[in-house]
Amino acid sequence: MSIREQVVQANIEIHTKMIHDYESEPHWRPENIEKVSQRLQNLYPEVRESALDVGAGTGFLTRHLVKDFKKVNAIDITPAMLAKVPQCDNLTVEICQVESMSFPDATFDFVCAYSFLHHLYDPIYALKEMIRVMKPNGVLYVDLEPNASYWDSLKRVSEMERISITPLVEREINATINIARQVSNKYAIESSVFENAEYSKSITGGFKAVELEQSLRDLGLSSVQVQFDWFMGQGGVMHGQSFELAKEIEDYLRTALPASANLFKYLWFTGVKRRNCDH
Q1: If we measure between CA atoms, which residue out of 200, 263, 203, 262 comes closest to residue 231?
Q2: SS3 label, residue 99
Q3: Average pLDDT over residues 25-43
Q4: CATH number, domain at 69?
Q5: Phi, psi of 268 (to 5 degrees)
Q6: What's the domain count of the chain?
Q7: Which long-range contacts (CB under 8 A, 24 or more apart) does 176-182 make?
Q8: Within a domain: residue 83?
Q9: Helix (H) or strand (E) holding 57
């Protein structure tokens, strides 16, 4: 079995076993749902005929799309996940890999994915396929992807000897660098399987903002924006102190970009397909 095939099988195994806990993940919290909802409303193209949710899972983005588009397709490779997507008349759900989508070129006005690309062996090829099925002037939206500078900085700290680590940093190391061991123990899954299931995070280390932006332009997008999101400990500040303080800290860290880039966990990005794109 090739590494690519191992990654696919690892994702099916992991997400089938985690299905009952999946919607307790932090991104399902009300404040994040509201944040994503606002982003979508600001990003939607003028024409809202058709939308595609890639790696839809249990329908985190799909549930928004069906309210705003006449026709929505949602694809994923894990049957147990898609079985939990709420059904409606304008939605078609399909078990499918992004690399083997059968949709014709230029099918969708809006293509999106949430917490998906880092589960793939070759995310750039997946992006190429997602852009292929977009109409000219269609919009791409991808969110909650690991910021390589954040993961790299925590890995370097975790490897340092004889240094004092604060509880916040220790918690973040356990939630990132050491997460495979925790998931392995909880779900009786080999650590290597979990690492393969998040290949472009666990194995290749996430996404570098500058390189990602260039790749998106090379693939045929214009108006590309790659943005940083969720600073270290943001959830703790929100729920332990106040949402206002979290916003104040976030705003301050954004004024310090790119020097503060390694303090943000995730990247999210958007782009518009050029009319002359031949992908």
Answers
A1: 263
A2: helix
A3: 93
A4: 3.40.50.150
A5: -140, 150
A6: 1
A7: 176/150, 176/151, 177/151
A8: yes
A9: none
231 in helix, strand or coil?
A: strand
CB-side neighbour CA atoms (13 Å) of 19: 14
Q: Is the peptide bond before 167 cis (omega within 30 degrees of 0)?
A: no
Question: How do residues 206-259 score in pLDDT, each as one tens digit?
Answer: 999 999 999 999 999 999 999 999 999 999 999 999 999 999 999 999 999 999
**Higher-confidence residue: 185 or 64?**
64
Distance CA 136, CA 96 (A): 24
pTM (2 d.p.):
0.95
In Å, the largest CA–CA distance within the chain is: 60
> Could you read off the pLDDT of 203-218 as tens digits, one per residue?
999 999 999 999 999 9
Strand 134-146 versus strand 264-273 pairing type: antiparallel
User: What b/e string do you get for 56-93 counting C-beta neighbours within 10 Å, with b at 16 or more?
Assistant: bbbbbbbbbbbeebebbbbbbbbebbbeebeeeeebeb
Mean pLDDT of 62-72: 97
Q: Give the Cα separation of 84 and 241 in Å (integer).
A: 34
**Domain around 31:** 3-147+195-230+267-273
